[in-house]
Write a structure and sequence with these properties.
homodimer; mainly alpha; DNA-binding
Chain lengths: 127, 127
DNA sequence: CCAACTGTATTATAGTATTGATACACAAAT
DNA sequence: ATTTGTGTATCAATACTATAATACAGTTGG
């Protein structure tokens, strides 16, 4: 279990965890019943404080995406409507796409270049 | 004068202003000598504090992108190398594109859908 | 039972970030 | 000289983020 964390980012660590898990659960990459890594494991791996991880987990538990079982690891809750549809997942990425569109306009960049660059980055990512 | 501000965003207002101006100046949409709207105008329009705008302006002045003239409005500084090249502007949007690529992977979205949606948003934006 | 493992509540601390209210210095125009 | 327009220095008030050190309640496996 990875967690793509960047401590130099302006978005706080706990929120990076929250958002990442929200996406992976919504997409079905994490399935109901899957156990999450323990807060201490994550904390040690990324040299952050266990409570920071716990905070992220708690928020997701309040959201209904995770289930807390005393003494046992957190696990993914059964999703009410099953996996999100492709359309719904596309909605989740829309804010970031709108951000890109805004920046492109402000940078006076044409659609083609931006799309070409995005395709390049996504292809590189698949490896 | 526009300023696309979102007070509900997690990125602070002053940074939204800074980044937006950086892009528009780099792209040449704002040319050397162009005057900026006064801090009070911007503040009133968006119902924020004038100091928030001033902070953004000051940062850009320290960066050399703006010039301060006492009693007169801030204006865009002459850019050392003229407008940024298209390649350079593409670099400026890369972090946001990488963010999109990350999210797409975590959402298990295929490249085509993401690109199609981005194209749609950018087309809508041009109006 | 015991040891090792889960998550969490608590309290404290530190640092940083963000925004705001107020008063001030300066320029330009009348 | 006065008014109106710049930007901003200063100080204050929060809010946020992360860390630390404990202690506790529960499960699991030997």
């Amino acid at each position: 279990m990875h967690f793509d964390l960047h401590s130099e980012s302006s978005t706080p660590i706990y929120r990076q965890i929250v958002e990442q898990l929200r996406r992976e659960i919504g997409a079905g990459l994490l399935k109901p019943g899957d156990a999450l890594p323990s807060v201490r494991q994550v904390a040690e791996l990324h040299t952050i404080n266990p409570m920071t991880v716990s905070r992220a987990y708690s928020l997701l538990e309040a959201e209904g995406l995770l289930i807390r079982q005393r003494g046992k690891p957190m696990c993914v809750a059964a999703q009410p409507g099953g996996q999100d549809s492709s359309a719904k997942r596309l909605q989740l990425i829309t804010p970031s796409l709108e951000q890109v569109a805004r920046e492109a306009r402000q940078l006076n960049l044409d659609t083609e270049s931006v799309i070409a660059e995005l395709a390049r980055l996504m292809k590189k990512d698949r490896k």
